[in-house]
Amino acid sequence: MKYVILAVALASGLALAGAGLAACSAERDSGARSEPRPATRIADPSEASDLIGQDLLIALAQAKNFHHKAKVYMTDGNLTAATASVRQILSLVFPPGAAEADDVRNDARALLAKLLMSQNQLDEAARAIDEGIAQSRRESFFVANLYTVRGEIHQARAAALDATGEPGKPAAADERHAAIAAFDHSIQINERLQKKLLEER
Amino acid sequence: MATQDDDTLTGPVPDPDAEPAPAELAHARRFAELVDKTLSGRTPPAMSADDRALLEVATVIRAAHGQLALAPGRQHAVVEDALRQAIGASPASASVAPIARARARRWAPWIVAGASTLVAAAAIALLWLRRPVQVHAPVARSVPEEWRSRPADPLIGPIAPERAGDAGTRIDAIFADRLDGFRARHLARGGKP
């Protein structure tokens, strides 16, 4: 009887140990498979999450339409409605992680600030620019454009201060310095990005 | 052809007070001789199945009754071997195993069985505890760049100050470019979304 028990225990032990080793081996193999194999594997495009999809196109199309609508209002001289139309671009929902989202929103903020400036709402325009710069996750030509518009706002403030007469001169000088700093920042970003793009080519 | 002897075990049980038949007496005598021969070590090589069964029962009864003694020669050999083991010498008789070895022999199957069970348990635990590795799909680097969502900087380039508010033109360019990429991908997949 005890030899039967011994045989059964040995057989089951060996079988399970073999199964365990096989599982470990399979896992090691699967670990090796997790390494990227760029040369041999043809990727299924559906695996990549950053592919252009309908969600992105819909968001871009909506932004485009709001811009066109704003342009029509601007042609009509209805700056308030144009501003409202551009503001709607900021609330569009883009796919998570879409790089175009930052660019489109920053460009809309630049236009929004220009519209507000033309309505003499300099503080509101500056707020739109500051929010855009603060929310940007990377440097881009659109961020550089925000700094350009910020410089224009400072220029407009300097002009407004100059118009107040002698008491506004020192503040106007400060605004002009701020404008120069903003333009310089914009130029530096543009230079860095152009250099980077040339290196990538 | 069956005889009365063949019916000893399977035939009807006689009344205890009945006089034994001559055949029964003859069978009893013959069986007594058989038992005597067996006890003296002269077991006949051939016997009937009933006799063999009865003989086994008789042997068991005798063994159970006790007072079985080893032959004097055998007794002497066992004592000699035990004394030799006590002084560290190897036993002369191979049939008498040392106590330690005998114990080891008795426990060896259980030790091996226990070890095998432990290995089996370890293997089960290994299979149970091992979590499947998250196999991440490799980033599809072979996908054309124009199929992917990406910054619009290379497309738009530096924005001149006099074009700072010309966002409408730029969004047109971005949308057209991304629509081209989407169409190219769509067509490459045979029209599947």
What does this molecule look like?
The complex is a heterodimer of chains A (201) and B (193). Chain A has 201 residues and is an all-alpha fold. Chain A has helices spanning 2-33, 54-76, 79-90, 99-118, 122-135, 141-163, 169-200. Chain A has a domain at 1-97. Chain A is built from 7 helices and no strands. In chain A, helix 2 (54-76) packs parallel to helix 4 and helix 6 (141-163) runs antiparallel to helix 7. Chain A is elongated, with a radius of gyration of 30 Å. With 193 residues, chain B is mainly alpha-helical. Chain B has a domain at 20-68. Chain B has helices spanning 22-39, 49-65, 72-86, 99-129, 153-156, 167-188. The longest helix of chain B is centred in the middle third of the chain and has 31 residues, at 99-129. The interface between A and B is large, with 75 and 58 residues.
Please describe the topology of this protein.
The complex is a heterodimer of chains A (201) and B (193).
Chain A: H1 2-33, H2 54-76, H3 79-90, H4 99-118, H5 122-135, H6 141-163, H7 169-200
Chain B: H1 22-39, H2 49-65, H3 72-86, H4 99-129, H5 153-156, H6 167-188
Question: Could you write a compact summary of the structure shown?
Answer:
Chain A is an all-alpha fold and 201 residues long. Chain A is 78% helix and 0% strand.
Structural class of chain B: mainly alpha
Unreliable stretches covering 5 or more consecutive residues of chain A: 27-43
Largest interface, C-beta within 8 A: A-B, 75 and 58 residues
Question: How many E-type strands of chain A?
Answer: 0
Distance between the ends of chain A: 80 Å
User: Oligomeric status of the shown chains?
Assistant: heterodimer
Features:
heterodimer; A: 201 residues; mainly alpha; 7 helices; 78% helix; B: 193 residues; 6 helices; 55% helix; 0% strand
